[in-house]
Hints:
Blueprint: H1 2-22, E1 33-34, E2 41-55, E3 75-86, E4 90-100, E5 103-107, E6 113-118, E7 122-135, E8 138-152, E9 156-170, E10 173-183, E11 188-216, E12 219-242, E13 247-273, E14 276-294, E15 300-317
Amino acid sequence: MLNLKKTAVAVLALGSSAVFAGSMGPVCSAVNVTVPCESTAWDFGAKALYMQPSLNSNVGGGVLDAATSHNPNYNWGFQIEGSYHFNTGNDLNLNWYHISKSSSKAFGARPATTVALGPFLGTETITPVSAASSVDPKWDMVNMEFGQHVDFGDNKAIRFHGGAEYARLANQVSRSGEATLAGTLASGTYTNAMTYNPTYNGFGPRLGADMAYGFGNGLGIYANGATAMLAGTSAFTSTHTDSLGNTNSNSQSRTTIVPEIDAKLGATYTYAMAQGDLTLDAGWMWVNYFNVHENNDSVRSDFGLQGPFIGLKWLGNVA
Protein backbone atom coordinates (compact mmCIF):
# COMPACT_ATOMS: atom_id res chain seq x y z
CA MET A 1 0.00 0.00 0.00
CA LEU A 2 2.81 2.39 0.85
CA ASN A 3 4.52 1.74 -2.47
CA LEU A 4 1.22 2.30 -4.31
CA LYS A 5 0.82 5.71 -2.65
CA LYS A 6 4.35 6.69 -3.55
CA THR A 7 3.73 5.70 -7.17
CA ALA A 8 0.50 7.74 -7.31
CA VAL A 9 2.18 10.82 -5.88
CA ALA A 10 4.98 10.56 -8.43
CA VAL A 11 2.47 10.27 -11.31
CA LEU A 12 0.54 13.32 -10.10
CA ALA A 13 3.75 15.33 -9.73
CA LEU A 14 4.86 14.47 -13.26
CA GLY A 15 1.41 15.27 -14.63
CA SER A 16 1.24 18.67 -12.98
CA SER A 17 4.74 19.51 -14.25
CA ALA A 18 3.65 18.67 -17.78
CA VAL A 19 0.60 20.92 -17.43
CA PHE A 20 2.65 23.89 -16.23
CA ALA A 21 5.33 23.34 -18.87
CA GLY A 22 2.76 23.18 -21.61
CA SER A 23 1.23 26.51 -20.55
CA MET A 24 4.50 28.32 -21.38
CA GLY A 25 4.10 27.75 -25.12
CA PRO A 26 6.55 26.27 -27.65
CA VAL A 27 10.27 26.43 -26.92
CA CYS A 28 12.39 28.12 -29.62
CA SER A 29 15.92 26.97 -30.32
CA ALA A 30 18.71 29.54 -30.54
CA VAL A 31 20.00 30.55 -33.97
CA ASN A 32 23.49 29.32 -34.73
CA VAL A 33 26.06 32.08 -35.14
CA THR A 34 28.78 30.92 -37.53
CA VAL A 35 31.49 32.22 -39.82
CA PRO A 36 32.04 30.99 -43.39
CA CYS A 37 34.45 28.19 -44.15
CA GLU A 38 37.98 29.21 -44.99
CA SER A 39 38.31 30.43 -48.57
CA THR A 40 40.21 32.89 -50.75
CA ALA A 41 38.53 35.17 -53.30
CA TRP A 42 38.68 38.54 -55.07
CA ASP A 43 35.85 40.88 -55.97
CA PHE A 44 35.63 44.01 -58.11
CA GLY A 45 32.65 46.33 -58.43
CA ALA A 46 31.45 49.67 -59.76
CA LYS A 47 28.34 51.77 -59.13
CA ALA A 48 26.77 54.73 -60.88
CA LEU A 49 25.65 57.37 -58.35
CA TYR A 50 22.94 59.97 -58.97
CA MET A 51 23.06 62.19 -55.90
CA GLN A 52 22.09 65.70 -54.86
CA PRO A 53 24.53 67.67 -52.69
CA SER A 54 23.06 69.58 -49.77
CA LEU A 55 25.19 72.49 -48.56
CA ASN A 56 25.25 76.15 -47.62
CA SER A 57 26.58 78.10 -50.61
CA ASN A 58 26.00 81.60 -49.21
CA VAL A 59 29.14 83.72 -49.33
CA GLY A 60 27.99 86.12 -46.62
CA GLY A 61 28.49 89.87 -46.65
CA GLY A 62 26.88 90.70 -50.01
CA VAL A 63 23.61 92.55 -50.54
CA LEU A 64 22.58 90.22 -53.39
CA ASP A 65 23.80 87.04 -51.69
CA ALA A 66 20.38 85.73 -50.56
CA ALA A 67 18.77 86.74 -53.86
CA THR A 68 21.09 84.45 -55.87
CA SER A 69 21.22 81.35 -53.66
CA HIS A 70 20.14 78.01 -55.15
CA ASN A 71 20.45 74.32 -54.37
CA PRO A 72 22.74 72.14 -56.54
CA ASN A 73 21.11 69.72 -58.98
CA TYR A 74 21.33 65.95 -58.85
CA ASN A 75 24.69 64.96 -60.32
CA TRP A 76 26.19 61.76 -61.69
CA GLY A 77 29.16 60.20 -59.93
CA PHE A 78 30.70 56.81 -59.36
CA GLN A 79 31.98 54.33 -56.80
CA ILE A 80 34.63 51.73 -57.55
CA GLU A 81 35.80 49.05 -55.12
CA GLY A 82 37.88 45.93 -54.78
CA SER A 83 38.18 43.33 -52.01
CA TYR A 84 40.42 40.45 -51.07
CA HIS A 85 38.62 37.69 -49.11
CA PHE A 86 40.61 35.32 -46.93
CA ASN A 87 40.47 33.08 -43.84
CA THR A 88 37.02 32.44 -42.36
CA GLY A 89 34.96 35.37 -43.59
CA ASN A 90 37.62 38.10 -43.46
CA ASP A 91 38.06 40.70 -46.20
CA LEU A 92 40.17 43.76 -46.96
CA ASN A 93 38.18 46.31 -48.98
CA LEU A 94 39.23 49.52 -50.74
CA ASN A 95 36.50 51.79 -52.17
CA TRP A 96 36.38 55.28 -53.71
CA TYR A 97 33.36 57.58 -54.16
CA HIS A 98 33.53 60.64 -56.43
CA ILE A 99 31.10 63.37 -57.51
CA SER A 100 31.94 66.66 -59.26
CA LYS A 101 29.41 68.58 -61.31
CA SER A 102 28.61 72.28 -61.59
CA SER A 103 25.16 73.81 -61.95
CA SER A 104 24.10 77.37 -62.71
CA LYS A 105 20.94 79.43 -62.51
CA ALA A 106 19.78 82.81 -63.79
CA PHE A 107 17.47 85.08 -61.80
CA GLY A 108 15.14 87.83 -62.98
CA ALA A 109 13.84 90.88 -61.15
CA ARG A 110 13.08 90.56 -57.44
CA PRO A 111 10.98 92.65 -55.02
CA ALA A 112 12.64 95.68 -53.51
CA THR A 113 14.27 95.48 -50.07
CA THR A 114 14.69 98.49 -47.78
CA VAL A 115 17.74 98.49 -45.53
CA ALA A 116 18.08 100.79 -42.51
CA LEU A 117 21.56 102.37 -42.55
CA GLY A 118 21.43 103.91 -39.10
CA PRO A 119 19.84 106.81 -37.22
CA PHE A 120 21.80 109.43 -39.20
CA LEU A 121 22.12 107.80 -42.67
CA GLY A 122 18.49 106.97 -43.42
CA THR A 123 17.58 103.99 -45.60
CA GLU A 124 18.58 102.39 -48.88
CA THR A 125 16.13 100.62 -51.20
CA ILE A 126 17.67 97.77 -53.20
CA THR A 127 15.73 96.36 -56.19
CA PRO A 128 17.43 93.30 -57.80
CA VAL A 129 17.15 93.46 -61.60
CA SER A 130 19.02 90.34 -62.70
CA ALA A 131 21.55 87.89 -61.31
CA ALA A 132 23.35 84.64 -62.07
CA SER A 133 25.02 82.08 -59.85
CA SER A 134 26.86 78.78 -60.17
CA VAL A 135 27.93 76.11 -57.69
CA ASP A 136 30.36 73.25 -58.24
CA PRO A 137 30.41 70.84 -55.25
CA LYS A 138 33.09 68.15 -55.27
CA TRP A 139 33.14 65.03 -53.08
CA ASP A 140 35.77 62.34 -52.76
CA MET A 141 35.66 59.61 -50.10
CA VAL A 142 38.21 56.79 -49.93
CA ASN A 143 37.72 53.98 -47.39
CA MET A 144 40.07 51.16 -46.39
CA GLU A 145 38.09 48.56 -44.42
CA PHE A 146 38.90 45.29 -42.68
CA GLY A 147 35.74 43.19 -42.45
CA GLN A 148 34.44 40.07 -40.70
CA HIS A 149 31.42 38.23 -42.15
CA VAL A 150 29.15 36.52 -39.57
CA ASP A 151 26.10 34.36 -40.40
CA PHE A 152 23.05 34.36 -38.12
CA GLY A 153 21.18 31.29 -39.33
CA ASP A 154 20.54 30.53 -42.98
CA ASN A 155 19.18 33.90 -44.15
CA LYS A 156 20.73 36.66 -42.05
CA ALA A 157 24.30 37.93 -42.09
CA ILE A 158 26.26 40.94 -40.84
CA ARG A 159 29.63 42.18 -42.04
CA PHE A 160 31.32 44.11 -39.24
CA HIS A 161 34.09 46.39 -40.48
CA GLY A 162 36.58 48.94 -39.24
CA GLY A 163 39.31 50.92 -40.89
CA ALA A 164 40.17 54.42 -42.07
CA GLU A 165 38.51 57.10 -44.19
CA TYR A 166 39.90 59.99 -46.22
CA ALA A 167 37.51 62.69 -47.44
CA ARG A 168 37.93 65.75 -49.61
CA LEU A 169 35.02 68.21 -49.82
CA ALA A 170 35.07 71.34 -51.94
CA ASN A 171 32.72 73.85 -53.51
CA GLN A 172 33.19 76.67 -56.00
CA VAL A 173 30.51 79.35 -55.79
CA SER A 174 30.34 82.42 -58.03
CA ARG A 175 27.65 85.11 -58.25
CA SER A 176 27.04 88.30 -60.12
CA GLY A 177 24.08 90.64 -59.97
CA GLU A 178 22.62 93.98 -60.96
CA ALA A 179 20.27 96.08 -58.85
CA THR A 180 18.80 99.57 -58.64
CA LEU A 181 19.69 101.65 -55.58
CA ALA A 182 17.58 104.49 -54.24
CA GLY A 183 18.35 106.14 -50.92
CA THR A 184 20.49 108.51 -48.93
CA LEU A 185 23.75 106.61 -49.48
CA ALA A 186 23.67 105.90 -53.24
CA SER A 187 21.31 105.92 -56.20
CA GLY A 188 21.44 104.40 -59.66
CA THR A 189 22.59 101.08 -61.06
CA TYR A 190 24.56 98.80 -58.79
CA THR A 191 26.52 95.67 -59.80
CA ASN A 192 28.51 93.22 -57.74
CA ALA A 193 30.37 89.92 -58.06
CA MET A 194 31.23 87.37 -55.39
CA THR A 195 33.16 84.11 -55.11
CA TYR A 196 33.36 81.59 -52.28
CA ASN A 197 35.59 78.49 -52.35
CA PRO A 198 35.48 76.27 -49.22
CA THR A 199 37.55 73.08 -48.96
CA TYR A 200 38.09 70.34 -46.40
CA ASN A 201 40.62 67.50 -46.31
CA GLY A 202 40.27 65.04 -43.44
CA PHE A 203 41.40 61.58 -42.33
CA GLY A 204 40.32 59.38 -39.44
CA PRO A 205 38.98 56.05 -38.12
CA ARG A 206 35.83 54.45 -39.50
CA LEU A 207 33.45 51.80 -38.10
CA GLY A 208 30.34 50.20 -39.56
CA ALA A 209 28.09 47.20 -40.11
CA ASP A 210 26.49 45.81 -43.27
CA MET A 211 23.32 43.83 -42.50
CA ALA A 212 21.83 41.52 -45.15
CA TYR A 213 18.81 39.23 -45.44
CA GLY A 214 18.53 36.61 -48.20
CA PHE A 215 15.23 35.35 -49.61
CA GLY A 216 16.77 32.57 -51.68
CA ASN A 217 17.16 32.24 -55.45
CA GLY A 218 19.80 34.99 -55.39
CA LEU A 219 17.53 37.74 -54.02
CA GLY A 220 18.40 39.77 -50.95
CA ILE A 221 17.99 43.12 -49.18
CA TYR A 222 20.38 45.03 -46.97
CA ALA A 223 20.84 48.01 -44.65
CA ASN A 224 24.38 49.37 -44.20
CA GLY A 225 25.62 52.05 -41.84
CA ALA A 226 29.00 53.54 -40.96
CA THR A 227 30.48 56.49 -39.11
CA ALA A 228 33.87 58.18 -39.07
CA MET A 229 35.66 60.87 -37.06
CA LEU A 230 37.90 62.94 -39.31
CA ALA A 231 40.67 65.36 -38.39
CA GLY A 232 41.73 67.77 -41.09
CA THR A 233 41.98 71.28 -42.46
CA SER A 234 38.91 73.40 -43.22
CA ALA A 235 39.67 76.45 -45.34
CA PHE A 236 37.95 78.98 -47.56
CA THR A 237 38.68 82.00 -49.73
CA SER A 238 36.14 84.63 -50.73
CA THR A 239 36.08 87.86 -52.73
CA HIS A 240 33.53 90.60 -53.20
CA THR A 241 33.66 93.59 -55.56
CA ASP A 242 30.98 96.08 -56.60
CA SER A 243 30.43 99.17 -58.72
CA LEU A 244 30.73 101.46 -55.68
CA GLY A 245 34.44 100.67 -55.51
CA ASN A 246 34.20 98.27 -52.60
CA THR A 247 36.63 95.34 -52.69
CA ASN A 248 36.86 92.71 -50.02
CA SER A 249 38.79 89.45 -49.90
CA ASN A 250 39.05 86.97 -47.08
CA SER A 251 40.75 83.65 -46.43
CA GLN A 252 40.84 81.34 -43.46
CA SER A 253 42.25 77.94 -42.55
CA ARG A 254 41.90 75.93 -39.36
CA THR A 255 42.21 72.37 -38.08
CA THR A 256 38.75 70.86 -37.50
CA ILE A 257 37.35 67.58 -36.16
CA VAL A 258 34.41 66.55 -38.37
CA PRO A 259 32.03 63.62 -37.65
CA GLU A 260 30.64 61.79 -40.68
CA ILE A 261 27.81 59.27 -41.11
CA ASP A 262 26.63 57.36 -44.15
CA ALA A 263 23.91 54.77 -44.73
CA LYS A 264 22.51 52.64 -47.54
CA LEU A 265 19.28 50.74 -48.15
CA GLY A 266 19.19 48.44 -51.11
CA ALA A 267 18.47 45.13 -52.81
CA THR A 268 20.69 42.62 -54.60
CA TYR A 269 20.35 39.82 -57.13
CA THR A 270 23.24 37.36 -57.43
CA TYR A 271 23.73 35.16 -60.50
CA ALA A 272 26.07 32.19 -60.10
CA MET A 273 28.41 31.71 -63.05
CA ALA A 274 31.06 29.12 -63.85
CA GLN A 275 33.85 31.58 -63.05
CA GLY A 276 32.28 33.29 -60.04
CA ASP A 277 29.22 35.24 -58.90
CA LEU A 278 27.84 38.40 -60.55
CA THR A 279 25.70 40.64 -58.28
CA LEU A 280 23.36 43.43 -59.36
CA ASP A 281 23.03 46.05 -56.60
CA ALA A 282 20.59 49.00 -56.42
CA GLY A 283 19.46 51.28 -53.62
CA TRP A 284 19.60 54.70 -51.95
CA MET A 285 22.51 56.33 -50.11
CA TRP A 286 22.78 59.14 -47.54
CA VAL A 287 26.02 60.89 -46.49
CA ASN A 288 26.56 63.84 -44.15
CA TYR A 289 29.61 65.71 -42.80
CA PHE A 290 28.75 67.92 -39.83
CA ASN A 291 29.87 71.57 -39.46
CA VAL A 292 32.57 71.18 -42.05
CA HIS A 293 32.46 74.52 -43.93
CA GLU A 294 32.53 78.12 -42.69
CA ASN A 295 31.71 81.39 -44.47
CA ASN A 296 32.45 85.10 -43.98
CA ASP A 297 29.80 85.39 -41.28
CA SER A 298 31.48 82.59 -39.24
CA VAL A 299 28.48 80.37 -39.93
CA ARG A 300 29.42 76.68 -40.05
CA SER A 301 27.40 74.35 -42.25
CA ASP A 302 27.10 70.67 -43.17
CA PHE A 303 28.03 69.01 -46.45
CA GLY A 304 25.59 66.26 -47.36
CA LEU A 305 24.57 64.08 -50.30
CA GLN A 306 21.68 61.72 -50.98
CA GLY A 307 20.35 59.80 -53.94
CA PRO A 308 19.99 56.46 -55.74
CA PHE A 309 22.69 54.19 -57.12
CA ILE A 310 22.99 51.04 -59.24
CA GLY A 311 25.98 48.82 -59.88
CA LEU A 312 27.55 45.41 -60.53
CA LYS A 313 30.07 43.35 -58.55
CA TRP A 314 31.94 40.25 -59.62
CA LEU A 315 33.26 37.75 -57.03
CA GLY A 316 35.71 35.07 -58.14
CA ASN A 317 37.17 32.34 -55.96
CA VAL A 318 40.89 31.65 -56.01
CA ALA A 319 41.69 27.96 -56.39
